[in-house]
């Protein structure tokens, strides 16, 4: 072990780099850490020299991390999470917490958990901020790097959200899938059959992280491939399109019952086997070294 080299890099250096990897901004990092921008720049200059890498390069007005910086982000998160656990041992007092919390989820998922997130905010009156990012913006890599604390997402039970050994997932809610359609759709007055389902065009939901859903695979093997006319980012956008078209939308039943965008659409059960679906919580195993995140985990899974 190179003690001399290690002595030249402090937790301050690693903390600044960790925050920079989330903000991509010297000014935002300085605000988060309550220091001056010049202090952040000085710390980053020292770290670049010690690690022999630029760490960030400028692309227009944006600071972009180098491949090396992204590659070491997960290890830095582990170091800081372990040290944070040592510094904050004992019981957690929500009323005195003044840090930040970051969650990631689809916009449609937020509609189901907004009440719980509001409750969390109320129990953390001194918290600096609660950030809720779109899953497309902060996904599994962000959990591994410690840029977000927890992710909540809908998925097939047969299709774990991730195969990464560093991430843990836990089911929060069981759900069903339904087919939504415009109230003027020709299928409204009929019992939905698989043949009818395949006869019309559909709206698909994009997700570059998860493989093809089980219901899609099983439908293709047993009956045929559905015709996806267009793909959108989320259930909400898809429901809006249903209001303006004769496309069918296959989505979460829980979401369909709560979402404003789905109101007025006709809901029908799927006429074929699609497995089991649920909403799950995903997190980086080392994050629970932090008593604040242990508390937040308990609230989310309650």
TrEMBL record:
SUPFAM superfamilies (alphabetical): Periplasmic binding protein-like II, Winged helix' DNA-binding domain
Domain of life the protein comes from: Bacteria
GO molecular function: DNA binding; DNA-binding transcription factor activity
ATP-binding found in the keyword field: no
UniProt keyword terms in alphabetical order: DNA-binding, Transcription, Transcription regulation
Family recorded in the similarity comment: Belongs to the LysR transcriptional regulatory family.
Record-given protein name: HTH-type transcriptional regulator YidZ
Organism, as annotated: Vibrio scophthalmi
